[in-house]
Amino acid sequence: MTIHVIGLSGSPHRHGNTETLLDAFLEGTRESGADTEKVILKDLAYSPCRGCNACHKTGKCVVSDDAIPLFERILSSDCLAVASPIYSMGITAELKGLIDRAQFLWARKFILKTMFFSDEHIRTHKGIFISTAGLSWDNVFDAAFPAVTAFFNTLGFEYYDNIIANDMDRYGSIHAHPTALAKAAEKGRSVVEAIARLESGAREGR
Ligand SMILES: Cc1cc2nc3c(=O)[nH]c(=O)nc-3n(C[C@H](O)[C@H](O)[C@H](O)COP(=O)(O)O)c2cc1C
After folding, report:
1. Range of 70's domain?
2. Ligand 1 binding pocket includes 134 (Cβ within 6 Å)
3. Mean pLDDT computed over 170-181
4. Cβ atoms within 10 A of the Cβ of 195, count?
5. In sequence order, which residues have a C-beta less than 8 Å from that of residue 171 and are 6 or more positions away?
């Protein structure tokens, strides 16, 4: 069975540090046999969540835009890679706007209880967070982790790993980083192998 990997690039800067790191990860997943899809969030048209809470009753979002079919594609993927540079100590507006729009799925799961992910589903669906930051601080990614954790939880993905590179102001470019791109590719290869192992184990009832 082919593993499907979807990568969301939340950077408004095309082919910058973060998208390049995502590309290296996706290349690694392809080397392990996955088929991949990259989505540039800034090229999609979606609005922020209105907070109307209609989805708490209906399980549906009242806004019909590019976010809705994207969630369908995410839910049918085995691996979700979410990429964002650090902007003002958090994730970009593009990514946060999309995460908030998953509220209708959160409502299905936690209020209406019409959506459910088994432990086995969560184990075989992996979420990866990819990020770059200008500062050298070790804790520069800390504010990004909770929103990404909530996103993976809502969508039924196990938060599997981070691929993060700080100190970009010093390096100037992710290409000048000594290890980031090679490590991202390696993590791409290994996550697909891990999912394949788990899925075949699940099929054999292990
Ligand atoms: C609007 C804006 C805000 C930023 N805020 C931060 C920040 O708070 N902390 C930080 O370490 N880097 C910050 N940066 C630097 C970026 O995180 C860094 O350059 C990153 O590698 C850019 O990735 P990209 O090439 O994908 O855009 C900021 C950059 C921009 C454009």
Report:
1. 4-203
2. yes
3. 97
4. 24
5. 165, 177
Distance CA 10, CA 19 (A): 8
From ligand 1's centre to the CA of 18, what distance in Å?
10
Report pLDDT for 187: 98
Ramachandran category for residue 106: left, alpha or beta (phi over 0 → left; psi -120 to 50 → alpha) = alpha
Residues in the chain, overall count: 206
16 pocket-lining for ligand 1 (C-beta < 6 Å): yes
pLDDT at 204 (0 to 100): 81
CATH code assigned at 17: 3.40.50.360
Q: How many CA atoms does the CB half-sphere of 105 hold within 13 Å?
A: 22
Cβ atoms within 10 Å, residue 68:
14
- Among 23, 130, 168, 174, which is best to mutate for testing ligand 1, by the most ligand atoms less than 8 A from CB? 168
Tens digits of residue pLDDT in 1-19: 899 999 999 999 999 999 9
What does the pLDDT look like over 91-129, one tens digit per residue?
A: 999 999 999 999 999 999 999 999 999 999 999 999 999
CB 83 within 8 A of CB 36: no
How far is ligand 1, taken at its centre, from the CA of residue 133, in Å? 5
Domain count across the chain: 1
Report pTM: 0.97
* 133 C-beta closer than 6 A to ligand 1: yes
